[in-house]
Amino acid sequence: MNEEIKAYNDSQNTEDKEICNLLEFEISTMLAEAESKIWHRHPVWFLDGNPVAGYSKLKDSVRLLFWSGQSFDEEKLQNEGSFKAAEMRYTSASQVDKEDLKRWLKKAREIQWDYKNIVKRKGVLLRLK
């Protein structure tokens, strides 16, 4: 596990740490080729410099975020923000459906919008895959 991500997970309370460790393991396993790091104070995984998945501790839950998730056509994922991101929130590790998570991570690799160049394109997102 990335040491910065381990420190992030270890800083959470017991229940949230369990969720974070589960998410880290599944994301790192399914996106083994991805670069992982703390980005904007949260664990994020990148493919070719493009953010695809990550999680963060919110006040009442842990949010799993997929930057291109609105294009996944998945009912359980909720739209987040004004671009293409979608999220799932957890308050317990038992809520994480590993089959859903694996399917979403597969789609995170296959369906990507170009967030890496969003500033250069003045807020315009282009589909990569």
- As residue ranges, the low-confidence spans are none
Strand-residue fraction? 15-25%
SSE pattern, N- to C-terminal: HHEEEEEEH
Mean pLDDT equals 94
Number of strands: 6
- Output the strand order for the largest sheet: 1-2-3-4-6-5
| Percent helix range | 25-40%
Global geometry? globular
Number of helices: 3
The termini sit apart by 28 Å
The assigned structural class equals alpha+beta
CATH topology: Aspartate Aminotransferase, domain 1
Count of spatially separate domains: 1
Query: What would you say the CATH architecture is?
Result: Alpha-Beta Complex
Work out the radius of gyration: 14 Å
- Main beta-sheet annotation: 6 strands, antiparallel
Just give the CATH class. Alpha Beta
Explained architecture:
Residues 17-108 form the YdhG-like domain. The chain is built from three helices and six strands; from the N terminus they run ααββββββα. It is an alpha+beta fold and 129 residues long. The protein has a single domain (3-110), classed as Aspartate Aminotransferase, domain 1, CATH 3.90.1150.200. A six-stranded antiparallel beta sheet has the order 1-2-3-4-6-5, covered by helices on one side. Strand 5 (78-79) and strand 6 form a beta hairpin. The termini are far apart.
